[in-house]
Amino acid sequence: MTLPIDSYDSSLALAATGSLRTFNDAGVLHSADVHVASRLTAMLGEGDESVALACALVVRAVRSGSVCLDLTEVRDEVGDHGASLDWPDLNGWLTALADSPLLAPPQPIRLEGTRLYLDRYWREEKQVEQDLRARASQAPPAIADEAALHVALHRLFPGTPFDEQRAAAHTAVRQWTTVLSGGPGTGKTTTVAGLLALLAEQAELAGDRRLRIALTAPTGKAAARLEEAVRGETSKWLSDQDTARLGGFNARTLHMLLGRRPDSSTRFRHNRDNRLPHDVVVVDETSMVSLTMMARLLEAVRPDTRLVLVGDPGQLASIEAGAVLADLVDGLVEGGHATAAELRTSHRFGSEIGDLASAVRRNQPGEVLTLLRRGGDRIQFVEDDDPRPILRRALLPGVLKIREAAEAGDVDSALVALNEHRLLCAHRDGPWGVAHWNRTVERWITDETEDPLWDTWYVGRPVLVTANDYGLGVYNGDVGVTVRRPDGTLRVHIDSARGRLDFSPSRLGDVQTLHAMTIHKAQGSQATEITVLMPGAESRLLSRELFYTAITRAEERVRVVGSAEAVRTALSRRALRATGLRHRLIDTPHQ
Ligand SMILES: Nc1ncnc2c1ncn2[C@@H]1O[C@H](COP(=O)(O)OP(=O)(O)OP(=O)(O)O)[C@@H](O)[C@H]1O
């Protein structure tokens, strides 16, 4: 039976013909992919259907976070879609592309081996490769006093418990670019604090001025966490003298560090002609940094600035295109440009959540399920078919606590309660989605309090900021709570990277209710307790990286609600992205 065509379906490109039409009808291509490909091929006089198809597929790839399209892999990645798809033969496809006017100047698309790029991403990837190679080919940073360095390494990283971190710091001191990688609680921040102290001492011994240090992260939330964590680890482990050498520091988002320009979202005040002044730049949560932002950062740092890229390669990649951290972990080391600085031992969680995270990363479904089912103080696995009773029990006390504090005008207690628990969903919509659970929690509040919550803004409404608002000073990822003032009006208090801010609800445009949030949006933030609602095993969003990111948002306790089958499916699937950076860094350059 042929289904009637819905002429109002925006995903369909009704004017498309040939392969573009077949792939669009099958749901592989969105109308936007088809329109870009049709337009480009028409403008440049390309009549070959297979080139138009490749063009549309590369737009689709970028839309889903890849930097390029690997023509050898796309068929497997797309799947058979009822076997109705007519794929071009690979060799013929490559020849048609090589001969295409699309690959002649001005070259809107680029072909490198079997990887096809939109020009912008090709340029950015090439620039990142060249900047990293140039940094690695310089003479290594000078050490002012080797003996003092040796003593300081053992002072700042004492004894066996710090062996791994000492080795990582020892490596980072001797290279311009270091990727410091490790899972949750493996001591990355502690290592950064010690490393900064080492570098500050070396600068003093060399008779240089005090080090200029930049701490940065992709989001406001992550930057605020970094600043707090470095401060905490510094006061915990460093002597007064080491701390004094560091001076004060604060963390900023990458956008703020590079200097936002009102006329562009991808260009910044600091660039190759106006470099950042810092001697050391530490980037946290590097897994969230897109290829574009990495390109902008690398062109803005001086060649003799030490760059320390900190992150957990097991996490989901950036929302925009790229998988920079994973590419750098492999590419810099395998290409011989840098020595690995990897931390493996978890120092947090009484290590149960660390063990679970490690088993997820190593793709050990048996071990993961055993750890989940064994449970304990920090882990709970709820395999009930109906998640409502457990979610109600888990969420409602916290929600009512926030409401009570907000009703009493107690902002501090409301914000503290807000960060005690977070429900994470894979989906935005549908029965496992954030929208559904936000509504459900609101119904439970009404049941408990008899407040019908007619208005969008109600006392105790927790909110998540979903877009940067530079005018207000609130950023994507900031969270806040709606509090009653003594005069009865409502005020929203946002815990922003720049401190506590409060607004009339009507001034906040891009916010969502935060009884539940997506795992993607939770990247870069943590809560004391996390409940992860797993979707059904058939969900296409399930992946190892998604599950890993979700459970590692927990500071103390994690609860997974869902089936063992969903957990197994998540582990078996990778959220892989096609990129060429890793290959570029490993391969010998052609020119
Ligand atoms: N070698 C060590 N021995 C004992 N405790 C340590 C050691 N290194 C770090 N810690 C402690 O373990 C905890 C986690 O360390 P840290 O915050 O540096 O890890 P992280 O990898 O930055 O964590 P996150 O997952 O938040 O990124 C902190 O309380 C820290 O003080």
UniProtKB/TrEMBL annotation:
GO terms for biological process: double-strand break repair via homologous recombination. It catalyses: ATP + H2O = ADP + phosphate + H(+). SUPFAM superfamilies: P-loop containing nucleoside triphosphate hydrolases (SSF52540). Transmembrane segments: none annotated. It comes from the Bacteria. One of its GO terms (cellular component) is exodeoxyribonuclease V complex. The keyword Oxidoreductase does not apply. It is an enzyme of class 5 (isomerase). The keyword DNA damage applies. Its EC number is 5.6.2.3. ATP binds at G182, G183, P184, G185, T186, G187, K188, T189. Residues 26-117 form the RecBCD enzyme subunit RecD N-terminal domain. Pfam families: AAA_19, RecD_N, UvrD_C_2. GO terms for molecular function: 5'-3' DNA helicase activity; ATP binding; DNA binding; exodeoxyribonuclease V activity; single-stranded DNA helicase activity. Keywords: ATP-binding, DNA damage, DNA repair, DNA-binding, Exonuclease, Helicase, Hydrolase, Isomerase, Nuclease, Nucleotide-binding. Residues 514-561 form the UvrD-like helicase C-terminal domain. A helicase/nuclease that prepares dsDNA breaks (DSB) for recombinational DNA repair. Binds to DSBs and unwinds DNA via a highly rapid and processive ATP-dependent bidirectional helicase activity. Unwinds dsDNA until it encounters a Chi (crossover hotspot instigator) sequence from the 3' direction. Cuts ssDNA a few nucleotides 3' to the Chi site. The properties and activities of the enzyme are changed at Chi. The Chi-altered holoenzyme produces a long 3'-ssDNA overhang and facilitates RecA-binding to the ssDNA for homologous DNA recombination and repair. Belongs to the RecD family. In the RecBCD complex, RecB has a slow 3'-5' helicase, an exonuclease activity and loads RecA onto ssDNA, RecD has a fast 5'-3' helicase activity, while RecC stimulates the ATPase and processivity of the RecB helicase and contributes to recognition of the Chi site. Heterotrimer of RecB, RecC and RecD. All subunits contribute to DNA-binding. NCBIfam families: recD. HAMAP family: RecD. This is RecBCD enzyme subunit RecD. The gene is recD.
